[in-house]
């Protein structure tokens, strides 16, 4: 009894009502979904067995993972350059850049997705211009394929990549880079041996964030993929709304959930997650 | 044992100035620094010490003038090619590397063989007495230990010149004195030229071969600690390094150190008193006492006396005479 009282900080009492509410509201539906996945349409592991027999499911699965990985790499690479430029330019330019970044952050995903269609579509601005200049004779197929989905998703994800990296880079002591140069390291050596390792927590944080967000992407693949690129989120919605196979949908949703949890677990083996998410380790 | 670059390390600073926009941070400084010398830049905050050091290190461009190492201009050599060691204010250790990796960094980026690095790092860790901490990260060390890692890291590639920017600024008083001794000892053993920035006058006096007193980006006076203390050339130098009374006489201003004055109750001293007046206040500091003295002409003087000499104790409000040796009062330049 004493031991329990000692290990239970009184602060927990204060947050307990809220905590219980959140747990009930989150855990209830999630358990319900998991329950559905093993009971609908009939009790058993039938839904999960589909993963191994259905070629199309497997293909959707790999498409999703491939697109999410490329999106993650692409947006973290671009986001890293943007964050770097923002941290190391003058204060005034930095606030301009931050404003631009936040503006694109606030614009609805639908608007951003459709503007890509206007820009890069079959009769879009870019294709029209190139054709007008006589550079190409046939329009380039930017949209309605995987390339289109990737362009749209990477563009959407860049602000999410920049923000954790920005926080990370801003907290660095730049005299450490001076020290590296003073000790004879070239710019490239300083970057590889000091800057990059010190920004690794930021890279991991934004990669995780983007990968997890991309897994649930729905609008962009639907619009820019032109029905040819089916990702798991869209497939789930089809199962729910069109074919009414709730069991399959629940199975896929559960799988995604456990995938994400497993990823977080593996990451936590390599580094303290609290450090990644900005805590003081 | 450590082999210094015995034939290298003299530094020539020729008429160097630095402007930030129109603001002049360093104003035409000339310095000739000998090989193996311990030279201290001393001055109040904002006097341009860090700016001068950063120009020597190559982190700041020189606006006008030239800096040369052993007679060869290095003004156009980038920081990473100058091979100067530097101990930064706040140390700037690499937080993600162990002590061993920190110290070996300079050799490792020069792609020296693993065995050579290991040997050299061990030698340096031995020099700064940190062998048992080799595998810790900087975050797991005390301030004084971090300071020694920074020193070992800067010395590991045997630079001809070591630059130190207030390396003891973050340490408490007791540790400072301890590390001062260690630093001085290391300087003696490695024979590298040390250029040391501080605004602590005691530190400057006890460690340096020569001191440069700076004000507003310009040099006020250069000399050995003895020269600067005994023969300050102007009020700023006299007031900044130690304390001083300033006596305004018809032929100019004289500086007189408080501890060079002897004070006696009226009429009890031998010979003709230099000044007479009354004791305003006495402050007791244990080993010494500080007396504020007002002369009959209305001049205020500070007098420091050793407590053991104040045998028949002087009291506040008592009238007394002041004596000092010929030459104790130094005539200052205009
Ligand atoms: N990057 C800069 N831009 C503009 N002014 C600067 C810059 N760096 C330094 N200064 C100015 O130059 C003057 C000298 O600065 P410096 O840092 O050399 O002083 P310091 O002697 O090292 O002082 P401290 O003892 O406080 O470290 C100061 O007035 C400072 O404001
Ligand atoms: Mg400074």
Question: What does this protein structure show overall?
Answer:
The complex is a heterodimer of chains A (281) and B (334). By secondary structure, chain A is mainly alpha-helical. Chain A has a domain at 54-105 and 154-278: MetI-like fold (Orthogonal Bundle), CATH 1.10.3720.10. Chain A has helices spanning 2-7, 11-39, 46-53, 55-87, 91-106, 109-120, 125-133, 146-170, 175-182, 187-215, 219-224, 232-241, 246-270, 273-276. Chain B is an alpha+beta fold. Chain B has two domains: 11-235, Rossmann fold, CATH 3.40.50; 244-331, RNA polymerase II/Efflux pump adaptor protein, barrel-sandwich hybrid domain (OB fold (Dihydrolipoamide Acetyltransferase, E2P)), CATH 2.40.50. Helix content of chain B is 26%, strand content 32%. In chain B, the strands form four sheets. Chain B has a six-stranded mixed β-sheet, with helices on both faces. In chain B, strands 13-17-14-15-16 form a five-stranded antiparallel β-sheet, with no helix packed on it. In chain B, helix 3 (99-109) packs across helix 4 (114-127). The chains are: A mainly alpha (281), B alpha+beta (334). Chains A and B meet through helix 9 and helix 10 of A and helix 2 and helix 3 of B. The structure holds adenosine-5'-triphosphate and magnesium ion. Magnesium ion binds next to helix 1 of chain B.
Secondary structure: elements and pairs:
The complex is a heterodimer of chains A (281) and B (334).
Chain A: H1 2-7, H2 11-39, H3 46-53, H4 55-87, H5 91-106, H6 109-120, H7 125-133, H8 146-170, H9 175-182, H10 187-215, H11 219-224, H12 232-241, H13 246-270, H14 273-276
Helix pairs in contact in A: 2-13, 4-8, 4-10, 6-8, 8-10, 9-10, 12-13
Chain B: E1 11-20, E2 23-33, E3 38-42, H1 49-57, E4 64-69, E5 72-73, H2 79-82, E6 85-87, H3 99-109, H4 114-127, H5 143-155, E7 161-165, H6 173-190, E8 193-198, H7 201-207, E9 210-215, E10 218-223, H8 225-230, H9 235-240, E11 245-249, E12 252-256, E13 262-265, E14 275-284, E15 288-295, E16 300-306, E17 319-323, E18 330-331
Parallel strand pairs in B: 3-8, 3-9, 6-7, 7-8
Antiparallel strand pairs in B: 1-2, 1-4, 4-5, 9-10, 11-12, 12-18, 13-17, 14-15, 14-17, 15-16
The complex binds adenosine-5'-triphosphate and magnesium ion.
């Amino acid at each position: 009894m004493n031991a329990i009282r000692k290990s239970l900080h009184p602060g927990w009492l204060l947050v307990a009502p809220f905590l219980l509410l959140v747990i009930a509201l989150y855990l209830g539906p999630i358990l319900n979904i998991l329950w559905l996945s093993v009971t609908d349409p009939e009790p058993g592991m039938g839904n999960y067995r589909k993963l191994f027999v259905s070629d199309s499911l497997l293909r959707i699965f790999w498409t999703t993972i491939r697109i999410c990985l490329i999106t993650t790499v692409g947006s973290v690479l671009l986001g890293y350059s943007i964050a770097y430029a923002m941290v190391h330019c003058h204060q005034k330019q930095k606030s301009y850049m931050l404003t631009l970044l936040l503006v694109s952050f606030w614009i609805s995903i639908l608007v951003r997705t459709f503007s890509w269609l206007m820009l890069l579509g079959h009769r879009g601005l870019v294709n029209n211009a190139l054709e007008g200049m006589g550079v190409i004779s046939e329009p380039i197929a930017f949209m309605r394929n995987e390339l289109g989905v990737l362009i749209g998703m990477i563009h959407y994800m860049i602000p999410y990549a920049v923000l954790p990296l920005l926080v990370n880079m801003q907290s660095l002591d730049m005299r450490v880079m001076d020290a590296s140069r003073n000790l004879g390291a070239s710019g490239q050596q300083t970057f590889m041996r000091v800057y990059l390792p010190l920004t690794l927590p930021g890279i991991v944080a934004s990669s995780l964030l983007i990968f997890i967000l991309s897994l649930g992407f729905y609008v962009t693949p639907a619009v820019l993929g032109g029905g040819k690129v089916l990702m798991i989120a869209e497939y789930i919605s089809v199962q729910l709304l069109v074919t009414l196979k709730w069991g399959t949908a629940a199975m896929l949703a559960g799988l995604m959930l456990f995938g994400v949890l497993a990823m977080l677990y593996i990451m936590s083996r390599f580094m303290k997650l609290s450090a990644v998410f900005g805590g003081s380790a | 044992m450590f082999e210094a670059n015995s034939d290298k390390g003299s530094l020539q600073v020729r008429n160097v100035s630095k402007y930030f926009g129109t603001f002049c941070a360093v104003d035409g400084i000339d310095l000739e620094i000998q090989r193996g010398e311990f030279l201290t830049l001393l001055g109040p905050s904002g006097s341009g010490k860090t700016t001068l050091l950063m120009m020597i290190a190559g982190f700041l461009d020189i606006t006008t003038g030239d800096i040369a190492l052993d007679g060869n201009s290095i003004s156009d050599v980038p920081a990473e090619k100058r091979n100067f060691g530097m101990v930064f204010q706040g140390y700037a250790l690499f937080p993600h590397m162990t002590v061993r990796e920190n110290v070996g960094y300079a050799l490792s980026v020069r792609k020296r063989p693993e065995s050579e690095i290991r040997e050299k790092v061990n030698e340096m860790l031995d020099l700064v007495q940190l062998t048992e901490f080799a595998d810790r990260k900087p975050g797991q060390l005390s301030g004084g230990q971090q300071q020694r890692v920074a020193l070992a890291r800067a010395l590991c590639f045997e630079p001809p010149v070591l630059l130190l920017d207030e390396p003891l600024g973050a340490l408490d008083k007791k540790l400072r004195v301890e590390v001062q001794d260690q630093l001085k000892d290391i300087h003696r053993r490695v024979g590298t030229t040390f250029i040391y920035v501080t605004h602590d006058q005691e530190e400057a006096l006890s460690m340096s071969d020569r001191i440069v007193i700076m004000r507003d980006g310009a040099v006020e006076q250069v000399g050995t600690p003895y020269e600067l203390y005994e023969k300050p050339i102007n009020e700023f130098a006299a007031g900044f390094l130690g304390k001083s009374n300033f006596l305004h006489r018809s032929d100019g201003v004289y500086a007189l150190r408080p501890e060079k004055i002897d004070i006696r109750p009226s009429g009890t001293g031998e010979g003709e008193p230099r000044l007479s007046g009354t004791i305003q206040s006495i402050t007791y500091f244990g080993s010494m006492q500080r007396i504020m003295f007002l002369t009959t002409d209305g001049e205020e003087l500070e007098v420091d006396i050793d407590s053991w000499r104040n045998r028949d104790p002087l009291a506040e409000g008592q009238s007394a005479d002041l004596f000092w040796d010929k030459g104790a009062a130094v005539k200052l330049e205009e």
